[in-house]
Fold this protein.
Amino acid sequence: MRRYYVMGLFSNFDEAFAAISDIRDHKIPGVTVDDVTLKSPIEHPEIEEILGDRGSPVPKFALFGAIFGAIFGFFFLAAGQAAFLVQPSGGKPVIPLPSNIVLSYEMLILFGVLSTLVGFFISARLMTKRHPLYSEKVSLDQIGIMLELDEKNVNPIKDLFKEHKVLEIREEVAR
Amino acid sequence: MQTKDINENIAWAQINADVLRSMESPRMGYWIAVAACLAMVACAVVAEIYQYQIGMGVGNLNWPHMWDIYIATFVFWIGMSHSGTLLSAILHIIHADWRKPIYRFAEAMTTFSLMTAGLFPIIHLGRVWNMYWVLPYVSDRGIWPNYRSPLVWDAFAITTYLTSSALFLFIGMIPDLAICRDNARGWRQKLYTVLSMGWQGDDRQWRNFRKIYLLMACFLIPLAVSVHSIVSADFAMSIMPGWHITSFPPYFVAGALYSGCAAIITLFIILRYFFRFDEYMTIPILEKTCKLTFAIAMVWSYLTLIEFASVWYGHDLVAKESLMERFVGPYSPFFWLMLFCGIICPFALAIEKMRRHLPTMFVVSLLLNLGMWLERWMIVTPTLATSHYPFAWDVMWPGMVQWAIVFGSFGWFGLLFLIFVKVFPSVSMYEVKEMVFHRRHAHRPDLAAKFHRRSSDQQPGDTASGQPRPEGA
Amino acid sequence: MSLKNVLENWSDYRKGHEQGGHHDYEHMWVMAVDLDKCTGCNACSVACYAENNLAVVGKERMMKGQGMHWLRVERYWDEPQIGGDDGQFQSAGGSFLPMMCQHCNAATCEPVCPVAATYHTPDGLNAQVYNRCIGSRYCSNNCPYRLRYFNFFSYYEESWPEPLNQQLNPDLSVRDKGVMEKCTFCVQRIRTAKDTARREGRAVQDGDAVTACAQTCPTQAIVFGDMLDKESRVSKIWAKQQVELGKTKQVKANPELRGYRILEGLNTDPCIMYLDRVREV
């Protein structure tokens, strides 16, 4: 069976919200809220709530990066100092903790930030090709609801969209 | 009188149009500004080439004045960079949505002032060509930088801060870059296509975006505090009376936020005037920034006075002498000017009439930053002039070469900023949309009419008809 | 490997100056300067210029504070404790204080150098590596005695016009612009003494290494030697004055003893002891 991408563009969040609620309530058999991709010009945590808790692994990346940065930072510095023994300075020990704490702290943040960034790129699927159904209107002022569907569900979804005053419907065969 | 942060009825399409318009077809004034900045940079470049060829002595540096306004200006620019972090990160975490129209240029300011600040430790090195020795690269000779030195901490901290704040600026701009991509043609479209990284505004992207933005903000706040503490460590970790002061880290952080906020006011007024951003950079938002600046100014003033008090009561004779030298010594006119600009001038921010008057605010914000620059100079130079060792007491005035490089740094910053405002959106479109969206939902015209702020204000749908005003307005 | 090194020697690497430090010293070169013998003739300074290839910068730059005098003889005409502004005391002559790098064992200049161009040698010297120096000048700012001098210009270009360059000491380099420098306790002479002693298969004896200033001083006010050698002249003078290295506050049985170290209270542990001048008041 062929699969389709269908996207409806709505003029405001209320309509989009209602449409997703209908999908969530299984108005159309075989289509679940998990198939929905919401496209919006702004961040809107409330409407994302009805999509269900989809989670984000970014904080884990941040935690990992920060811990790695602090530990690696400290031992990187200490190893450098211990390998450079000609440098006993100003009566300070070879491995002075106060200065190493300062620098480990900076490394914690640097690695934390870089790791968070990598986590974001991976989990937001950035640096990939835009979807064929991408509409420039989403970056302007319209809200898009996109679903990946079996052929039989395409028309019911279109009807559902129309019920909620959809402005425009686009579809594309999925590969 | 305008009391709303933003008109909640602006159409989203209008926001896009207004901001995108600001990026198009520079007018004559823009090119004049670019030329002026280039001329300033040229001054600095000529001075630096001369200094590079002849030696550090050309700017009147001497024994014991090994550091002078290069380091003062370095601290000044690092301080300026703290504004962006304050506005974006702290205000983001506490959900102060009035930051949204103005945080983008503040963040750009952060990045660019760091790029300016970073030049100064390099310029001031006696052997610039060996500057990379400060970095911890693996050398086949087994040589490492000295991690005990606050200058190495500086190198680490500035690198980290520049990386993080540039990334923060960039991440926050991705959705806007996507908007630019959808509206641009030619080289701009290519540029934005690459930079927007395939942003398409789907819920997965927004969800992760929200997370990373919050996390970056959480990383940036302690980072900003640590960066300026480390800069203060250049002084506080030394043995010099007048530098070796325990309260320096918070003092520097407060000073940094102070000068950063003052610079935000300056640039706010410039952008509002030249880009006609009256709808977004509104007077109430300026007022809020001014109030914030005032609060920080008072923190800074307190820390300044407490520094004097602690030195005085600490009764370390050398430190006391050094302090007195600042009050009455050869540098005292600048010292008193600094106290005037830093402690007296901010009271203008507390007066509503002045706060709402743009030309006044422009002048005041420049005065505040003048005070903050003088503060750094008054930390660096008088201490070197009066140290532990009376034989080495000396008064030195910076020479033309030093002034030229400091002057040029403002041109460099201006140039970067001018390029930024024409290539990148200087108002965050998606966040202004959010702000408008949420305000529209929260807006209750009936309540607004009832509890309008001033009895003298014109009320919506009512033209001063002399109706009785509600109490407690 | 490096990690193993860190973990195995952790407690050793954590020893600071107060715990004896990580290194054992082979020598501890120190000096004693008797100010009572100093006549302020500046011969030490001249000797230093000749020995260490110090740049002659000219009157103008000297006035601007860009001179390179590693050993400066400070003149004080106006000390309050000997009469202040009283012209009579001033006519009796000033007080002189020859100041050269104090080679502090807890030197404040060392930890602040970003590239470790200044460090402590196993000889107890505060060394400056010209080749490593990048000229951040932090060390000079952090020296409470202000004994570090910076090459603000390429002084060598004008300092020794032909044929004066022929008189330069070949044992050490001429410094270019952008480098910090300071008194080395004539490290080239110490090197030579150690090399000679090793070649002759003996220990370095007292008097093998003498700094140019100590050698030149007509009144022998400056005594230089190894503190670890208990029989050396200098260590005897230190012992007699009851001044000890590694102490912030010296406990003296006899308050009449004249030995002191400059700015001792800053805990820099300098290696030069001065003997106070005795004046009739």
Remarks:
- The two ends of chain B are 14 Å apart (CA to CA).
